Amino acid sequence: MAAEQGGGMGRRSHPYIEREGSLKRVQEEFRPVVDALHARVAEVFGPDRLHSAYLYGSVPRGTARPGRSDLDVLLVLHAQPTEADRADAERVGAELDAGFGQIDGVGTLLFSETVLMSELERYDLGWFVACLCTPLIGPDLAQRLPRYRPTSLLARETNGDLADVLPRWRELVGRAATDTERRRLARIFARRLVRTGLTLVMPRAGLFTSDLTESAEVFARYYPARGDEMRKAAQAAGNPTADPSVLLSYTEDLGPWLASEYIAVHGRKTPRPY
Q1: What are the pLDDT digits (tens) for 104-163?
Q2: Do residues 157 and 210 both lie within one domain?
Q3: Percentage of the chain surpassing pLDDT 90?
Q4: What UniProt keywords are attached to this protein's entry (predicted)?
């Protein structure tokens, strides 16, 4: 661990992590998409199934790129999501993706209110809702959650499972048969690696950011020997390549090193029963 660490920024008090998005930040060209999402989710799920709905990602941050950014959605249900719930969510997402050229796909997460409010998820999904999600429909669960600081506990519970994810990544790479599939995986892997790199150093830096370029630079202050790799991963997250050697570097080099370092610094994420 010490061999690859660089100089720190010095001790500093950890500020609270503020919620990063807002409906006011949604760019004009994406407002019709958000309006349509609001209407369709409310219509399809209704108050009997839906507790609340949220946006996350580049659209509520106001950094989305027309025709290239996806629309990220969290649906919170009163009960555990069923296959019918997931099918309805996929249908709504497909309708929006087909109807609006501004977005490149819709990604929807479904969780029950009980899971999101559980003590087990307090420093993972709870933090995600409170800090990374923007309320769209229904009561805001963030009102029932604490304020969060960039601590080692938060680091462990958000990204301390990279070692468990890597075997699945290798399977996906082995099954990828087209450049389109390989580019999609490169984007997913690069995003995860950069975000994990940022949370690895987050307690020392005393900050959190969702900006991948900034994340790579913060990481590089503490691990300069791996800095260029992380910068390239941040670039690949926005402009992914189909080069198999890049995927191999993620699954066999940067990924395993980062997973090992993460466990050494913060420990493993608490296992989930689901």
Answers
A1: 999 999 999 999 999 999 999 999 999 999 999 999 999 999 999 999 999 999 999 999
A2: yes
A3: 93
A4: Transferase
Tokens in use for 112?
Answer: 């029950």
Domain count, the chain: 2
CB 72 within 8 A of CB 93: no
pLDDT at 96: 98
HEC sequence for the chain: CHHHCCCCCCCCCCCCCCCCCCHHHCCHHHHHHHHHHHHHHHHHHHHHHEEEEEEECHHHHCCCCCCCCCEEEEEEECCCCCHHHHHHHHHHHHHHHHHCCCCCCEEEEEEEHHHHCCCCCCCCHHHHHHHHEEEEECCCHHHHCCCCCCCHHHHHHHHCCHHHHHHHHHHHHHHCCCHHHHHHHHHHHHHHHHHHHHHHHHHHHCCCCCCHHHHHHHHHHHCHHHHHHHHHHHHHHHCCCCCHHHHHHHHHHHHHHHHHHHHHHHCCCCCCCC
Per the CB < 8 A criterion, the answer to whether 222 and 6 are in contact is: yes
Examine the domain organization and report whether 137 and 156 are in the same domain. no
CATH, residue 31 = 3.30.460.10
**How confident is the model over 249-255, as a mean pLDDT?**
98
Domain end call among 118, 144, 170: 144
pLDDT attached to residue 117? 98
